[in-house]
């Protein structure tokens, strides 16, 4: 199988290097052949090619079974008036590969619960899988500016079609059926017409195809509260692109460390894209102290969802479990203890 | 002064009744004349007039110095296919009175900190004042549905003009100047054109008119994280209607009880609207056990912002402080202790 690596910027190359070692070891132990080309993307690609997603990178990605991304961006490319920015590459690859479903598991590790800003009794037992729609909504609707008596007027259109809603709800409902059996759809149907269509289509899909699962709808503002006050009440949560962006980031605070959270972006067919949810952390780049575990856990998701290698995925996840149980910690989760380096952490997982 | 009461639905009438007693007492003690007409609004107005905001109610509101709202809505009026809903009245009154600025203080009471889902060391010292834009953005942009090869397509437009952005940022910046001196503007300028205009106008206003305050911009997804992980780093936060809806509700979880949080909605001139941020709690309506303190604190904001009665506002707030310090608790904040009733709580404040 071909797995394209997009190390990206900042700590990206360091953490992807550890994930590659994990892939190499899996290949060896389980007798697979993994080809792992590495391509420029993000700020480094802007520097080299003036384009955050060069055509050659996109071609290589399209000809892969899966893509592993480190992180992109950094202050160097943050100028709002710049011609292009690393984020543009991210949005483009999602759209070009049709990665309409962003999966984000939120499941705290019990050893690290004390690092959570939430009280233990609130967070304990939490196990949420978010499905965020990723190629529609206000991210990809029409937008622009016009003259206005006041000065200027700018607009961005949030839009969804029946089939865009149906396919992400279907995927989420299938997953709910295989997990805790409960699906929560989040919208703002008391105000937005686009949410009213969302609510209607979601209800139809569930009623017709998943009558066996428990189903509820929650308003986005209420969900922002419930996520903090009773996170353990949720199982699978499905929502649109913008609401998902906000809620999954809010949810990512629950476990107490961003350094352990992976995400997967999947399409109807074709390669999936896997990445840690944390950023490129330019402040610690090049120091060999970044936590590679989220990227390694993203690699486990890659093995599971794009290569159908469940045993191998589980092997990686249980290695991470054991490494944490043994007390090994990089600086971000060391809480005053003695931190190990990026590559030491990688070696313990191997 | 005329202060129009809109008791609304559910527990609304019970909590507004206590606030009215507070207003009566303030009038007596400080020799003011308050006229307090009470008008139908919300579900009860739909039942009686088929309209959540009857013209007569709107007229009375317009002819007032200030408006005190209990809460509107309930399962009885929740049918999405209904011709009108209580929320429509809320959106209409905001628009009709030009209430473009929604102020929401988030300041936990130290006696109640243990009720917070967040750890004490995270929440301690938090004192945020949100300014949410309330009459623009995606709440009031064009919206609709059209046929689509897939089925249907729905859209809702998020839009802002230079002056809509400038006036709310100006108000927030003025408030920052009088408080901790720091302003945070929240947007999604890395994706949305409308946010790029927001960011540009906000920066201009601050640079030209408030060069003395500390100013930062934060992306909405990052803000959803920071609010949980380091809430005490913020002072005044300004953002658009939709982002504000989500973030203020998230923030409302921090103090551990919705029952103590007031909000004010202000326009350029004309009456302001004051209300507790909690809902109509139909499950406990009519039992006389609801917490009236948020509504009483909203009344203090009313005295301060619409009637310029700072001494009277402080008197109400310090009465609430003392009642809490003395250990009086309604059921929602009793945490196993012996709860008092709505009217007992009102009497203690008096
Ligand atoms: C970088 C940005 C464009 C992106 C988004 O908003 O989708 C990020 O926040 C994410 O969630 O992957
Ligand atoms: C009821 C609803 C329309 C309203 C809003 O979204 O503005 C509410 O959530 C609020 O925040 O006041």
Automatic annotation (TrEMBL), chains A, B:
Q: Where does NAD(+) bind?
A: 74-87, 279-291
Give its E.C. classification number: 1.1.1.85
Q: Which residues form the Isopropylmalate dehydrogenase-like domain?
A: 2-349
The listed locations are:
Cytoplasm
According to UniProt, this protein's pathway is: Amino-acid biosynthesis; L-leucine biosynthesis; L-leucine from 3-methyl-2-oxobutanoate: step 3/4
**Cofactors per UniProt?**
Mn(2+); Mg(2+)
**Alphabetized Pfam families for the sequence:** Iso_dh (PF00180)
Tell me which UniProt keywords the record has, alphabetically. Answer: Amino-acid biosynthesis, Branched-chain amino acid biosynthesis, Cytoplasm, Leucine biosynthesis, Magnesium, Manganese, Metal-binding, NAD, Oxidoreductase
Enumerate the residues marked as the site Important for catalysis: 139, 188
Q: Give the first-level EC class, as a single word.
A: oxidoreductase
Query: Which catalytic reaction applies to this protein?
Result: (2R,3S)-3-isopropylmalate + NAD(+) = 4-methyl-2-oxopentanoate + CO2 + NADH
Task: Name the InterPro entries on file.
Answer: IsoCit/isopropylmalate_DH_CS (IPR019818), IsoPropMal-DH-like_dom (IPR024084), Isopropylmalate_DH (IPR004429)
Q: Where does substrate bind?
A: 94, 104, 132, 221
Specify the domain of life of the species encoding this protein: Bacteria
Cofactor binding note of this UniProt entry: Binds 1 Mg(2+) or Mn(2+) ion per subunit.
Quick check: keyword Metal-binding in the entry?
yes
Per its record, what are the GO molecular function terms?
Answer: 3-isopropylmalate dehydrogenase activity; magnesium ion binding; NAD binding
Role this protein plays? Catalyzes the oxidation of 3-carboxy-2-hydroxy-4-methylpentanoate (3-isopropylmalate) to 3-carboxy-4-methyl-2-oxopentanoate. The product decarboxylates to 4-methyl-2 oxopentanoate.
Protein name stated in the entry: 3-isopropylmalate dehydrogenase
Organism in which the protein naturally occurs:
Gimesia aquarii
- This protein's gene is called leuB
């Amino acid at each position: 199988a071909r797995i394209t690596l997009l190390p990206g910027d900042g700590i990206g190359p360091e953490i992807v290097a550890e994930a590659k070692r994990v892939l190499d070891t899996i290949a060896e132990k389980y007798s697979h052949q993994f080809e792992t080309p590495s391509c420029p993307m993000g700020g480094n690609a802007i520097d080299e090619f003036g384009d955050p997603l060069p055509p050659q990178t996109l071609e290589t990605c399209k000809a892969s079974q899966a893509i592993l991304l480190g992180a992109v961006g950094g202050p160097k490319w943050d100028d709002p008036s710049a011609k292009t920015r690393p984020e543009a590459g991210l949005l483009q690859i999602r759209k070009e590969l049709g990665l309409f479903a962003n999966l984000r598991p939120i499941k705290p590790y019990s050893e690290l619960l004390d690092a959570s800003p939430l009280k233990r009794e609130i967070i304990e037992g939490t196990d949420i899988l978010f499905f965020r729609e990723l190629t529609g909504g206000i991210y990809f609707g029409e937008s622009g500016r016009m003259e206005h008596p006041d000065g200027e007027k700018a607009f961005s259109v949030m839009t969804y079609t029946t089939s865009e809603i149906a396919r992400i709800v279907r995927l989420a409902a299938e997953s709910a059926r295989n997990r805790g059996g409960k699906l929560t759809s989040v919208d703002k149907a008391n105000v937005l017409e686009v949410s009213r269509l969302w609510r209607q289509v979601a209800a139809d899909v569930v009623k017709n195809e998943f009558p066996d699962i428990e189903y509820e709808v929650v308003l986005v503002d209420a969900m922002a509260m419930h996520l903090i006050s009773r996170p353990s009440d949720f199982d699978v949560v499905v929502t649109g692109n913008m609401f998902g962006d906000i809620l999954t980031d809010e949810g990512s605070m629950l476990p107490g460390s961003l350094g352990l959270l992976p995400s997967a972006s999947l399409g109807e067919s074709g390669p999936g894209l896997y990445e840690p949810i944390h950023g490129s952390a330019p402040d610690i780049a090049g120091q060999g102290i970044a936590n590679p575990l989220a990227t390694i856990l993203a690699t486990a998701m890659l093995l599971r969802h794009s290569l159908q290698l469940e045993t191998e995925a589980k092997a990686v996840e249980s290695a991470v479990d054991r490494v944490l149980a043994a007390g090994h910690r990089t600086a971000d989760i060391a809480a005053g203890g003695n931190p190990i380096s990026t590559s030491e952490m990688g070696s313990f997982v191997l």
